[in-house]
Amino acid sequence: MCRSASVDDIPTAIKDIGRTLAREPEIAFAAAVSGPYNLHAVAHCRDLDELFESTSDRIGSLSGLQSMEVSPLLQQVKQAGTLVSGDRLVPPHSTRARR
Q1: What is the mean pLDDT of residues 51-71?
Q2: Residue 7 and residue 71: Cα distance in Å, rounded?
Q3: DSSP assignment, residue 96?
Q4: Is the backbone of residue 86 left (phi > 0), alpha (psi -120 to 50) or beta?
Q5: pTM of the prediction?
Q6: Is residue 39 within 8 Å of residue 32, measured between CB atoms?
Q7: CA of 48: how far to CAs of 7, 44, 80, 90, in Å?
Q8: What beta strand segments (E) does the chain contain?
Q9: Collapsed DSSP state (helix, strand, coil) of residue 74
Q10: Own/partner long-range contacts of 55-59 (Cβ < 8 Å, ≥24 apart)
Q11: Is there a contact between 43 and 5 (Cβ–Cβ < 8 Å)?
Q12: Confidence band of 4 (pLDDT split at 50, 70, 90)
């Protein structure tokens, strides 16, 4: 099961909360964003129990967190791979001719 969470936090806590989210084992993606929420994260959970535990116990208790919106995704249709080297993104190498 995958979940998408948008997090509203105190602006001075964005970096700390974002780094904490990135260290959580379930979190596949975390980024600072603009809009009604300051952070967006995607997590992969085994089931609803793990989703509830991570959302309520670990993420929900973070200092500076004001609110959170969780959207469970029950089916993923497509996902492109992300290339990384260490902790940096690597430009994709396309085998297709560019037009």
Answers
A1: 86
A2: 12
A3: S
A4: left
A5: 0.65
A6: yes
A7: 19, 11, 25, 33
A8: 2-9, 27-32, 39-44, 65-73, 84-85, 88-89
A9: coil
A10: 55/3, 55/5, 58/24, 59/5, 59/7, 59/21, 59/24
A11: yes
A12: low
61: exposed, middle or buried (C-beta count within 10 Å: 0-12, 13-18, 19+)?
A: exposed
d(CA 43, CA 55): 10
β-pair partners for 2? 44, 73
Query: Of 46, 74, 69, which is closest to residue 59 (Cα–Cα)?
Result: 69
- The tokens 């037009």 sit on which residue? 99
Q: Are β-strands 39-44 and 88-89 bridged in parallel, bridged antiparallel, or unpaired? A: unpaired
Residues 25, 59: Cα–Cα separation, whole Å: 12
Q: Which tokens belong to 71?
A: 């959207």
pLDDT band at 38 (very low <50, low <70, confident <90, very high): confident
SS3 per residue for 12-25: HHHHHHHHHHHHCC
